[in-house]
């Protein structure tokens, strides 16, 4: 499916990357037949999104928390054993450095509730949070109510949270059958990114009035080789015959990866995953990060 053509005086989104920590990903957890000991040292990217011409500002994801002791015990355990991380600069510090006071942030969209995307909400006392509706049950059954859960019940302030219902994803755009036209003007779509975790959301944004786009894929895939078809999603079976995979629904995740991969064949579309280490190495410290912006291709 082609991307929608711009309207006259088309609104668009200025997208800026935010430093929000780096982490080690053992690739055998994500890629089938990964090389023994292959580890990706990658970012956990967050993003500043500014609507043009209104100037309305949103943040997409918050990356990693600096204080590991605030995570559920199970997260602390596997972060120390298998996924060590560091946070020289948190998402809120990146915003402040880029000229945006976290207290002025009005809206934060979280792609999902995994520990490397939730950051710390305390610096954002005035923000409304947007998550997928299915996130509600994950929060209700999270830690500490369930001592073994890796989802923190206190991830977001419920009283300031909008749970985006399934019915809100009522628009088809490009290869995606379920999206939410956030501003109603075709500038910013929240995409139902099924598969990785319940409530997973991606962002599809126009980056110019002329029709350039960026797709912020969060954790739909953990390596660009999955998007190109060079590699397949890793999984294994446990002793009870249950499938173990980094994605809650492997089949749905693979189908969504196929749809995201289709964007690579379209002109003027940039796909950026939350843990894209190659993009990060090329762009860190540069104009793609606030107060700069990611340029149109």
Automatic annotation (TrEMBL):
Keywords, in A-Z order: Hydrolase, Metal-binding, Zinc
Cofactors: Zn(2+)
Pfam families from the UniProt entry: Lactamase_B (PF00753)
UniProt keyword Zinc present: yes
InterPro entries: MBL_superfamily_lactonases (IPR051013), Metallo-B-lactamas (IPR001279), RibonucZ/Hydroxyglut_hydro (IPR036866)
A GO molecular-function annotation: hydrolase activity
Domain Metallo-beta-lactamase: from-to ranges: 95-140
The keyword Cell membrane belongs to this UniProt entry's keyword annotation: no
Stated family: Belongs to the metallo-beta-lactamase superfamily.
Protein name: Metallo-beta-lactamase domain-containing protein
Lineage: Eukaryota, Fungi, Dikarya, Basidiomycota, Agaricomycotina
